[in-house]
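INFO  loader      accepted 1 record
INFO  loader      residues=465
INFO  predictor   begin
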Amino acid sequence: MTQTLKTKVLIIGAGTGGYVAGIRCGQLGLDTILVDGGDGLGGTCLNVGCIPSKAIIHAASKFETVSKAANGGTLGITVADPVIDFAQTVAWKDGIVKKLNGGVAALLKKARVKVIKGWAQFSDAKTCTVKTDDGDIVISAEHVILATGSEPVELPFLKFGGDVISSTEALSLDAVPERLVVVGGGYIGLELGIAYRKLGAQVAIVEMADRILPLYDKALTDPVAKWLTSHGVELHLGAKAGGFGEGQLSITTRDGTPMQLPADKVLVTVGRRPRTKGWGLENMGVTMDGPFVKIDNRCATNMKNVWAVGDLTGEPMLAHKGSAQGEVVAEIIAGHDKRFDPVTIAAVCFTEPEIVSAGLGPLDVEGRDDVITAMFPLAAIGRALAIEAGEDGGFVRVLASKSDHRLLGIQAVGQHVAELSNSFAQMLEMGAVLEDVAGVIHVHPTLGEAFHEASLRALGHAIHI
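INFO  predictor   done
INFO  writer      dumping C-alpha cells
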C-alpha cells in the first residue's frame, strides 16, 4: 500500500547543501523530510568526493615521504623500502566516510528531520513519489528544496565502465594501477593524478587546453606544472583524447600527430554537470539557466516556495557554497530576511603544491591601471622552510584598489596553503583594506605571515624581502 505524507519542507538530495538545509530547518522548528537518493548522507562530497579524495591524497603524501627516506634518506631519516597495501588504504578511507555518515545521521536525528532513503520522482512542483525498499511513499510539501547535486561528465567515446573510470571509481580501486592516464587537466584530474603518482603509478595527463588548470593564471599553475615534470608525469597539452582499447588510449597531439598511450586505467575528469535527469524536474515548471536551475539571490526558483541550492544552481560547484545556500533557504522559510550574496567563495586545488584563490585574480583585472598587485614568496618565510614548503616557487599574492586599498582578491600556491583560504575569504567578506591586514599581528612562525608580508609589500614596505 502506498504511504502518503505531508510536510512543511521537503528536501531532495542529502549532500552538503541538502543535509545542512535539513539540520537548519530542524533547528528552526520546521517539519522536514529529507530524501536521500542513493549517494548516502553527505552526498558526493562526503562519500565519493571531497573527503575520500583528501584522505587518499594524504595517504599518498605519507607514502611519498617514506619512499624518499628509503631512497637516500631525507632530513637525516632513512628507512627500508616501503610497501603499500592499497586495499587497506581504501578501507581506512571508507572508515572515515562511515564515521562521517554516522555523524550526519545523528545530527539529522537530533534536529528531528525524517530521512527517507529512495529515489524521488516529481509529478508537480510540490508532490513527489519516493520509491523505497518498503514501497512507494507519496510526499506533498509546502516548500521544496532541490539539492540533487552533480555527476561526472561522460565522454561519448570514453564511456564509464571497466577500465574507463570516473573520480568515484578512482577512490575505490583495489590496487594502484601500474599505468594511469588522466583525461582532463582540471583540479579533480590533477589531484588524483598526483596522488597516484606519489603511490607509484606511471601517470600521463591529456588536456585540450595549452596548459593545466586553465581557469587559473600561469603564475599559480607553474609550481604545479614544475612538480609534475620533475616527478615524471607525462603532460600532453593541446591534445585530444580518443577511444580506448587493448590497454591503449588513442590521442591526437597539438600538432595533429596520432599517439597511443598505454594505460591500465583511464580516469576521465572533464567536468561535472548538474543532476537534472531522472527525478521529474521537467514536471515542476521551474525556469532553467542553461543546464542549471535558475535562482535569485534568495535561492528561489520561479515557482513559489520551490528553492534550489548547490551544484544544481551553477558555478562555482563547491560544497561550501551549497551548505551556505542551504542555511539561507532554511532561514528564509522560517521567516527570516536573508539573502545569498557572498563577496567571495574561495576555492582550493589540493594539488602538489596546493592552490587557493579568493576574489579577483590577475586575469579578471587585466588591462586595468587602478589595481595594486603584490606577491610574497614562501621561500622568505621561516615556517615554510622548516616544513619543506619553501622551495617549490610558492607565494601569496594580493590585489587591491589603488584608490582606497580595498582588497579585491587573494591567491596563494604552495604546500599547506589550503589552510589560509578561510583567512583570505574572511578579509574579503569584511571589506578589509591592505592596512587592516598589515595592522594584524600575525603569529610567528606560520605560513600566514606571507599574507601579512604581501600586504606590506603592496603598501611599499615589506619587511623580509
